[in-house]
Each structure stands twice: as C-alpha cells, then as structure tokens.
Amino acid sequence: MSTAIAVTSADLVLPPTDQQTPTAALLQSPDSQSLEEAVTDMRLLLEQRGYVVAVCSTGLRPAFEQRLRTVRSILESDRIALLQSDLPPLGLAVLVRQLRQLSVCGFSAGVVASAARLLSHYVHAGALLNSVARLDRVPVSLRTHAKSWVPGSQFGVVAAPEAQLVKVGSGSLTGPPFATHLLVAKGQLQSDWVTGTLASEWKAQAVHEADLPADSPRWWGTGKLIEFAAYLPDISILYQLVSSVRREQCHWCAMEFIGDRCGFCTAPLLSHENQNQASGVMNQGPS
After folding, report:
1. Which of 14, 37, 133, 248 is the most exposed place for a label (fewest CB within 10 A)?
2. Which domain of life is it from (predicted)?
C-alpha cells in the first residue's frame, strides 16, 4: 500500500519538481460538499492508496477541521493521519510538496506522517510586509507597531522556524545555515527586496516564483506583502534526513514513526523504561 498526501486547499499544491512527484488529493470544504460525499471520497482514496496523510494549517476553519475528524470517525479508520502545521501558507505548501516527494521513496505511511515535524524545522518561512499592525503570528513590540504607521515602512518577518522581525533598512534576517532555494509569492506590494537583498544575504542557490496562496493576506494581516520560503530542494537530502532518524513502533496503534510522537494517533514516544515493561492493560494507550 502507498501513501496519499491530501490537502484542504488547492493553494497548497505546488507544481512538482520532477516527474516522480505525485500530486495531492484535494479535500473539499463543508460548504462545497456534503458529509456523505466526503466520506465516499475518503473511502475511495483509502481503497486506492491504502493510507492518507491530510495536511492543513492550524488556522483552518473549525467547521472544516471538524469535518475531517468526523469523516475519520465515521470510517473508523486508523489509516488516516490529520496533521496540522503552524507554518504560514507558502511554507506549508513547500512542506506538502516535500511530503509528496517522500511518499514515493519507500517510507512507510507512519514515517511520512511523522516526518512533517522534522522537515518543518528546515523550512524558513516569512514575508515582506508594509505593516505589522495586524500581525498576530509573530511577536511585535509597541515600538515596531508605531513604526508601521510611518508611510513607506516595510518589514521583513520570519515566522518559522524561529520568529524574527526587522524594519527593512535597519537590520537583516538570519537565514538558514545550509544551501536552499527560495520560493517567492508576490501580493499587492512592489519591491525587489526579497529577490535581491534577502536572496543574496541568504545565499539562495535559486529563486522561484509561485502564486500567492489565498489565505496569505489573512495569515499575515495584510494583502500588501511578498511571501517567501527557503527550503531544501534536493530530495536525496530530504531522504537522508528522514532515514537518519531512529524509527520507533507506536505503542498505541503500532504504526512506525520517527521523532517523539506518532503521526497517525499522536501518541507520544514512551520512555525507554516504559518500553521495557511487560505489556498489559495499564500500559496500553497514551497517557
């Protein structure tokens, strides 16, 4: 059985970088599809692919999130993983493409799902904004808020893996300590700072353009922005990263995973002391 990567928005499906990268399945919102149709579509996807890893933002509408959980509950399936990420929209799209690449690399569904947390640390996602007055995803000081009201001000912001914020012209953003490509999506802001200054400071090996995700203005608090994401472009490096991490077996659902938490049932990794205990009623299930 293989692993299907599913998303809640077409904006999260970037063009593949090679002929082997599969596309992602698009999950419809409750506004455009009935519950019965959603259950039928998910059942077919499971029959065709075996496992489904559904990726969405932590800012997904509650009704849509509830729909996903309801579908999984109705199907009573342990082969559906629901992964939520704090990455901004363009960064999340990059992560989704990387998971699509890994899904055909021979990894089990559990490893693919749990690899999302690992790979998120290697995506440097941010934006150039004309104002931070409505930015609530990154800490903003009162002084910076005041500066955002000065006409012509622009701010470079990084939301992941660590929050950064500088006023353009008075500071620089710390970039990734490894070779990356830079993906850029332009909104209603005219500037060459991202493709020029930032790309040079971050030593980007290549710059690519993408359409701005529809959710980006809401996420960043303004439509006058240019969103960017620096990422590892080489699938062989992604493969090595995931392969180098010790694999565990989930004590709750028996899925294989990497890291400290199962990607399917979210059960945490047991301590070595607990792993060595004999299995029994008191040792079954997450605490």
Report:
1. 37
2. Bacteria
